Amino acid sequence: MIDKKFADLFAQGSQVSIEIAEREIVLERILKILQGRDICGQHL
């Protein structure tokens, strides 16, 4: 789970809702995990 204080901070700084902030944090973490992996012959 995402710590609420980080999502709140992100939401305030980006001027978005808490739901959007949480989604952005999750997507960022997923992209970091996938970095360097070979997906369809392309590096992310």
Please supply descriptive tags for the structure shown above.
44 residues, mainly alpha, two-stranded antiparallel ribbon, 2 helices, elongated
Major pleated sheet: 2 strands, antiparallel
What integer is the average pLDDT?
A: 84
Strand order of the largest sheet: 1-2
Which term fits the overall shape?
A: elongated
Give structural notes.
This protein is mainly alpha-helical and 44 residues long. The protein has one domain. It is 64% helix and 9% strand. It is built from two helices and two strands. The chain has helices at 4-14, 18-34, and strands at 38-39, 42-43. Strands 1-2 form a two-stranded antiparallel sheet. A hairpin with a 2-residue loop joins strand 1 (38-39) and strand 2. Helix 1 packs across helix 2 (18-34). The longest helix is centred in the middle third of the chain and has 17 residues, at 18-34. The two termini are 25 Å apart. The mean pLDDT is 84.
SSE topology:
Blueprint: H1 4-14, H2 18-34, E1 38-39, E2 42-43
Antiparallel strand pairs: 1-2
Helix pairs in contact: 1-2
How is this structure best summarized?
By secondary structure, the chain is mainly α.
